[in-house]
Amino acid sequence: MNETFMKEKPVLPLMLSMALPMVLSMMVNSLYNIIDSFFVSQISEEAMTALSLVYPVQNVINAVGIGFGIGINAVIAFYLGAGDNREADRVATQGLVLAVIHGVVMTVCCIAMMPAFLGMFTSSETVIELGVRYCVVAFAFTLVIIVGVTFEKIFQAVGNMKTTMISLMCGCITNIVFDPILIFGYGPFPAMGIEGAALATGIGQALTLAIYLVVYFVRPIRVHIRRQHILPGKGMVWKLYSIGIPATLNLALPSLLISALNAILAAYSEVYILVLGIYYKLQTFIYLPANGVVQGMRPLIGYNYGAGENKRVSQIYKIVLCMSGIIMVLGTVICLLIPSQLMGLFTHTEATIQAGETALRIIGAGFIVSAVSVTSSGALEGLGKGTPSLLISLCRYVVLIIPVALLLSRLFGAVGVWNAFWITEAITAILSLFIYLKAIA
C-alpha cells in the first residue's frame, strides 16, 4: 500500500473508504448492544434494571480504553504524517504498556466498588444481587477490553480499517450467538442467567483481541511494538496523556450524566430509571455509526495535520459533518415513527412502554443538531487538541444538561428530564462550532 495515500487520495473517496468499514462494524456493535439487552430483559425486569445501573461503570471502563487509545491513535498518525516511523513505534509500545497497567487497576477497583455503587440507586436486594453477579464476570475481562482497544487504535492509525472491522464484527457476532446459549442454556451449556450474558460478552471481546494479535504477527503493519521502547519516557507519556485524559473524560462523562439523571429520576419512580437505561441502549444504534465515521476521520485528520495539509483538514471536517448529520436524521425519524415498538423489545409493562415512548420522541428532537458537537469533538481529538474537545463534552454531559434537567424536573417531573436533552444539544452545537473554529485558527 502507498504509505502517503492519506494525504494524496481525493478526500471524499478516502473518507468513505476509511469510515464505511467502521460504520458497518459499529452498526453490528450497536445491534449486539440491543440484542444483549433484549435477552437480559427476558430474564426479568429487575435484571434489565440491574444492567441499566451497571452501564455507567462499564462505560467508564470503555472510556479509559478508548480515550487513551485515541491518544495513541492521534500521536501515531501525527508522527506517520511527519515521516517519523521510529517515534510512531515508540508511541505504540509505550501506549500498550500503560494500557496494560490501566486494565489491571480497573479490574480490581471496579469489582470491589460495585455493591456500594449499586446501593446508591436502588434498595432492591434482587437488583443489587443481579448487578454484582453480572459485574464479577464482565469486569474479569477488563484487561482484554483495554488491550483490544489499544490494538484497534494502532491499526486505525495506519489506515487499516478492514482489520478493525473484521475483528469487531467477529467479536460482536460471537457475543450475539452465545448470549441465548449461555443465558438460557442450550445443548451442553448450563443456564447461567445474567452471568451468561456477561460471559458471552467476554468471549466476544477475547476473540476480537485474538484476531488483532494474529493479524499483527502474520501480516505486520507499519507500526511495531519494540522491546527497546518498553520503558516509558516522560515526554512521550505526557503527549499520550495530554490527549488521552481529555478523550477519556469525554467518553466517561456520559456515566456521570446517567448516574446524576438516575438520582433525579429515582425521586419519581424506578420505571424512569429503566426507561433511561433502555434509551441509552437504543441510542447506541444511532451514535455508534456516527462514532464509526469519526473513527475513520481521526487518523486522516491527524495525518494531514502532521503533514501540513490544512486545506484537506477542513475538507475532511465538512464531509464528516454531513455524514454524521445524515445518520442523525435517520435516528430522529426512527424515534418519531416507532418509539413504542422499540421500547417493547425490552419490556412488556404498558406503563413503562408509554413512558419510554414519550422519552424517545422528546429526546430524539436533539439528534440532528448533535452532529455538530460529535464531529467537532472528534476532529479536535484527531488534531491532538484534547482540551477543547473536553470543553464540548463538558457542555453536553455536565455543565448544561444536569442543571437544566434538575430545574425542569422540578417544574414538569420526569418529562422535564427528557426535554433537557434537546435543549442542551441545541446550545452545545453553537458552542462547539465556536470552540472548534477558535482551536484551529
From TrEMBL:
Main location: membrane
Cross-referenced PANTHER family: FMN_FAD EXPORTER YEEO-RELATED, MULTIDRUG RESISTANCE PROTEIN NORM-RELATED
Family: Belongs to the multi antimicrobial extrusion (MATE) (TC 2.A.66.1) family.
Transmembrane regions: 12-35, 60-83, 95-118, 130-151, 163-186, 198-219, 240-265, 271-290, 319-339, 359-383, 390-412, 418-437
Compartments, as annotated in UniProt: Cell membrane
Name under which the protein is recorded: Probable multidrug resistance protein NorM
A Pfam family recorded for this sequence: MatE
Keywords of this entry: Antiport, Cell membrane, Ion transport, Membrane, Transmembrane, Transmembrane helix, Transport
NCBIfam families, alphabetized: matE
Task performed by this protein: Multidrug efflux pump.
Residues in coiled coil: none
Organism: Dorea hominis
Membrane association type: Multi-pass membrane protein
